[in-house]
Amino acid sequence: IHDLGLITGPPGFRRIRVAARLATALRQHGPFDVAHAYWGMPAGVAAAAVAQPVRVPTVVTLSSGELVSLNDISYGLQRRWPDRQAIRRMLRRASAITVPTSYMASQLAAHRREPVIIPMGVDSTRFVPSTRADGPPWRLIRVASINRVKDYPTLLRAIAALPDSVTLDIVGEDTLATVRLLAGGGM
């Protein structure tokens, strides 16, 4: 593991700083046979830009909003022109692209890239299911950051429509100050 450290600053400058630190790490710790970047931004953009010129093949795993634009929740790297351009350059430079779903693979058709689909998760054949009685009470847990993309209002409405024998626990970073928002009447 070669930690690039916490990189702060405006989004465009963060990409430049990530690329500079990555270039330094490649020089100091290389040579490398392959670079793998998880997420298109900033990792994929930086890795493809830095590794390609020194002939290090780059695999980029897209698993989030790299290929979408959802303006109503301010999500996706296709919303702003600079981000769209950075993702397009990264897609051209990357030696290979992996995605977790066939849906994400279909989104790459417009970019003329054929990704490898590598599903996320665990091999269920390696784990023995726990034994539990069928039927209520049911206790659900959602593990995810609390943000607009996760659409907690829909989840809470769905849980409210279920019988009282269903409870929900939510575990994750609260990026929306939800406790304060809920006390004020909504998300």
Tell me briefly what this model is.
The protein has 187 residues and is an alpha/beta fold. The protein is 35% helix and 14% strand.
How is this structure best described in words?
With 187 residues, this protein is α/β, with parallel strands linked by helices. Helices cover 35% and strands 14% of the residues. It is built from six helices and six strands. The chain has helices spanning 11-29, 40-51, 81-93, 102-107, 152-160, 178-183, and strands spanning 35-38, 58-61, 96-99, 116-117, 138-143, 166-171. The strands form two sheets. The chain has a four-stranded parallel sheet with strand order 1-2-3-4. It has a two-stranded parallel ribbon with strand order 5-6. Strand 3, helix 4 (102-107) and strand 4 (116-117) form a beta-alpha-beta unit. The protein is globular, with a radius of gyration of 20 Å. The model has no long low-confidence stretch (mean pLDDT 86).
List SSEs in N-to-C order. Answer: HEHEHEHEEHEH
The low-confidence parts are none
- Structural class, judged by helices and strands? alpha/beta
Global geometry? globular
Kindly state the percentage of residues in helix.
25-40%
Measured by DSSP, the beta-strand proportion falls in: 5-15%
List keywords for this structure.
187 residues, alpha/beta
Give the arrangement of secondary structure elements.
Blueprint: H1 11-29, E1 35-38, H2 40-51, E2 58-61, H3 81-93, E3 96-99, H4 102-107, E4 116-117, E5 138-143, H5 152-160, E6 166-171, H6 178-183
Parallel strand pairs: 1-2, 2-3, 3-4, 5-6
Helix pairs in contact: 1-2, 2-3
